[in-house]
Amino acid sequence: MIDPREFHRRAKEYAREKNKHYYFMALKSDAIIDATQQGNVSRFINHSCDPNAETQKWTVNGDLRVGFFARKSFRAGDEVTFDYQFQRYGKEAQRCYCESTNCRGWIGEDPDKEDKGRDKREKRDREKRKSRTIFRFVK
Ligand SMILES: [Zn+2]
Asked: Separation of 112 CA from ligand 1 center, angstroms?
């Protein structure tokens, strides 16, 4: 678990090292998980715009934890996916290839929409979300 300052430092460091994969997830504004160096198998779960799982924040014995929970039933062997609710950090938008019928086309915000700016309500709604992945992609 790292704070925003360490997150920015590591994001720059990983970019310098030309890391292709980032495993950052924000639990709250000042608590970010970095699973780049180590983490369990859940760090490899891919994004989908129509996911079969979701993240939930739990406090376990005073520690903040993130868990993955099914949103709908799926069979053994099916790929587990969740919505990254991606906030971009860096200039390149990530195309989404999830192939769901409601695919937004981008992981996170559409770059065209983003350029027009966001109103305060939208920003506040985003803050309320349970947990977010701020910078995570798998090519
Ligand atoms: Zn998609």
From this structure: 16
